[in-house]
Amino acid sequence: MKSRAVIINGGFGIDHLDAVTREEREPGHGEALVRIEAVSLNRRDVLLAQGIYNPRQKLPIVPCSDGAGVVAAVGPGCKRVKLGDRVVIHMFPGWLAGEPDRDKLATGLGGPGGDGTLRQHISISENTLIALPKSLSVNAAATLPCAALTAWSAIVESGQVRAGDHVMVQGTGGVSLFALQFAKMCGAHVVATTSSDEKAQKLRALGADAVVNYRTNKDWAAEGRDLAGGRIDLIVDVGGADTLDAGLRVIRPGGTIALIGVLSGAKAEINLPLAVMRQVRLQGVTCGHRESFEAMLRAIGQHGIDPVIDTIYPLEEARAAFAQMAENRHVGKILVCP
């Protein structure tokens, strides 16, 4: 069948994102054909387009890992989903449960696992599809596979945040906002950092107990610790090079820094004795498995957490969507709706 898709073609760069018509295969055994209604962007997708995420990535490739839609056809032996089901696509088709390994992580859509979700239709294993609760819209579901599940893993799974804990989140991107929402769900006190007063207002509206402007205060980490009463149990670090050392200086002894992003660079100089002598745990976080995704969906439904959506673009304007994310002109998630 003919279907529209966006591909990175002819070289890296946002200007090499092209909307094309191509043949989409029919679902095979144990697969379903999903009509994708919404795709959300992640920093990984922009880095892929720019040739930074994997400079050796073979082109052309359909980018993006996050998508949700409706089952339009089922292949033989398909039992988990049926025609007409509203579903969200799990980012790692090969990581259904348990600890990650190289093979599981190599199945990531829109990257090592091959073509991603920025298209109108996708034939994919039914094992990577999760039915949506009635309370969750397709647009909201499309924001969840990467950013929300990464935040859930950082806050709930590995962070084990409890009521009364003090959590620091950085910025207003998708992971940070979901981390704020999940930490408040767990009863934590949350300090958020941001670059503007306007964004600070949005963070407070989502439940942040205190907000620090890191542009106007170079000692933002210490101020955040003071606003938390002198104790930070968990930091969700999306900054990378420019934020990790500051985090090590304010996290409590025995606390955890969840390493997620590299917005300010991939190589950081840190004071290792701070981590060693104070027994700080540095926990890398990459998304999560399908069972964790299902648990997160149940929690979202029970607690009424609403994903923050900044802008919605049509498929033909995918370049504009990528440019907005690259320039950090967003709060929350950017969607492309095929």
What is the name of the CATH class of the largest domain? Alpha Beta
Distance between the termini: 16 Å
> Would you identify the regions where 5 or more consecutive residues have pLDDT less than 50?
none
* Main beta sheet strand tally, sense and closure: 7 strands, mixed
Helix share of residues?
25-40%
State the CATH architecture of the largest domain: Alpha-Beta Complex
Shape: globular
Order of helices and strands: EEEHEEHEEHHEHEHEHEHEHEHEHE
- Broad structural category: alpha/beta
Mean pLDDT, to the nearest integer, reads: 95
Q: How many whole angstroms does the radius of gyration measure?
A: 20 Å
In CATH terms, the superfamily of the largest domain is Medium-chain alcohol dehydrogenases, catalytic domain
Tell me the number of strands.
15
Give me the number of helical elements.
11
Number of domains: 2
Fold-level CATH name of the largest domain: Quinone Oxidoreductase, Chain A, domain 1
Q: Could you explain the architecture of this structure?
A:
The protein has 338 residues and is α/β, with parallel strands linked by helices. The chain folds into two domains: 174 residues, Alpha-Beta Complex (Quinone Oxidoreductase, Chain A, domain 1); 126 residues, NAD(P)-binding Rossmann-like Domain (Rossmann fold, 3-Layer(aba) Sandwich), CATH 3.40.50. Helices cover 28% and strands 25% of the residues. The protein contains eleven helices and 15 strands. The strands form three sheets. Strands 3, 4, 5, 6, 7, 14 and 15 form a seven-stranded mixed beta sheet that branches. A six-stranded parallel beta sheet has the order 10-9-8-11-12-13, with helices on both faces. A two-stranded antiparallel ribbon has the order 1-2. Helix 4 crosses helix 5. It is globular, with a radius of gyration of 20 Å. The two termini are 16 Å apart.
